[in-house]
Amino acid sequence: MKVYLYVLLTIILVIYGQIAVKQGVGTLLASGISVKTSGLPVFIIKALLNPWVLSGFASAFLGALVWLLVLQHLELSRAYPFVAMIFVLMPFACWIALGEGISPGKIIGSGIIALGIVVSGKF
To answer: Taking the complete model, does pTM exceed 0.85, yes or no?
Structure first.
């Protein structure tokens, strides 16, 4: 049962990581830094020094390390469908954390993916 806590932690870390990177890029854009205005090398350097981007990368890396714990206990074909929960939860997390819109299509799509996870877990 502990392995499913690792799966959940991996999902949370990956979702946070993506939201943090998006937030970091948003702060760069708000301060006038973009590839178009500053050039690719400057944008990348500024992004890599941004606390949001750094925390997002750290979170994704930590998620990968936790995933190693998952793989010790589950076959990959059994564990990997859980990663699809990221696609189910991400629109809702972005709605809450970033104020992004959530359309009926996103809700229906998330439901279909969730159903696929359940079906793949049963067979």
So the answer is: yes
